[in-house]
Amino acid sequence: MEDILLKSSSMFPYFMLVAFEGGGPIRALILLLMYPFLCMLEEDLRFEIMVFICFFGIKKESFKIGRIVLPKFFLENVGCESLEVVMKFGRKVGVTKLPKVMVEGFLMDFLGVEDIIGQEIGVIGGYYTGLLDKSEIGKNKQEKIFSHMMSEESQYVGICGFTKSYKTRPFNILKDIYLVSKDDKKSWNNLPKEKYPKPLIFHDGRLAFMPTPLDTLTMFMWLPFGIILSITRVLVAVLLPHEMCSPIAAFLGLRYPYTPSKDNPKYTNKPENSKGMIYVCNHKTLLDAVYVSHICRMNLFTLTYSISKLSKFLCPIDTIELTRDREKDAAIMYKVLSQGRNVILCPEGTTCREPYLLRFSPLFAELSDDLNPVALQVDVSMFYGTTASGIKAFDPFFFMMNPWPSYHVKFLEKLPKEWTCGSGGRTRFEVANYVQDVIGKALSYTCTGLTRKDKYLVLAGNNGLYH
Question: Is there a smaller number of Cβ atoms within 10 Å at the N or the C end of the chain?
Fold first, then answer.
């Protein structure tokens, strides 16, 4: 796999992802410090030591990094030309030096590979030992795959690199073998997202960059400053008023360019005793409402579904937690709007990192005809400020640890009356889908019918409720 699909055959970044996301920063730092010494060792020994450092003591049942983190980074390293060749074949068998648990999600879920010939890691008491399984059981599993291949009438073709792998099974039992050289790889282009065999919509993990040795060293050098800067940025947002917060936040490296519209509350005079407006946003991080509130220079109410107690405590604007009971939630929202308070909500119910919009819950459409869509776009260079399987309370801090986190807020035109439930006679589903489409076009995002439940079933194996 690594010799014919990936532009760079270096396995260090993928082991670093396992170490950081699965074992934490201390394990990742150990791997980084050991790497210069590992480079002086023979390749097979170096590989086995990296496996041991990354997997020792990791619980097998909870290890999901191979399916929810690594596929994104494998896809970013795939050569467009090599993938086109591989995808032309029917039944595909993947051969890799990496542990199977690291590549199953990528090869099976995205490339449609039916069988994988790779290495297994020993398990004792439900925990990985970090030692490669070289027992007869592991060898027998591979022999079954070999036997199945040889028993089929269709002819198998082998594609591999100029390494000793083409002299080993299953390549040494194939009639036709095509070799890929390093010079061939130099001419490959990166695989664009629109050519992914399957859309990458959901993925997890904190690292937003490919952790090469140099980039990982940069991250650890930045980390002490980043932690201090993150806490400072959060305290500024929590403790200072809007007028003071904006210039200080800009000085601390926070960037939030925005595109106003004529309906922007900074330029709109609202009559007294009028009903509040609903700002409908796509959901990028827990800080969506905070950024919009700072730009509007007003204390908006934000409606949340399920957040940690720490996030509630630190939130500088008023929050109301919804119950997921439609009638109760409608009553809560109507009461706030009747008081003339403007409300900001994210009907997706959860975040999505990629350029896709999840299904919009239609509840907001029934409560007011005064709807203002807001399109949000976030750029980070080091850490993601969201997680499905990690500790959600740390989300704002990870986002603020980025050197130059950017939040682009684009206020769109208010919904025309003909596209509302009250004046326009539209159903709540029509209005919700229309708002989703408007925001999607503004961001060049693809609209989907996926929900919060779909995301958390894929990434965390639960329904996404915070207890």
Answer: C
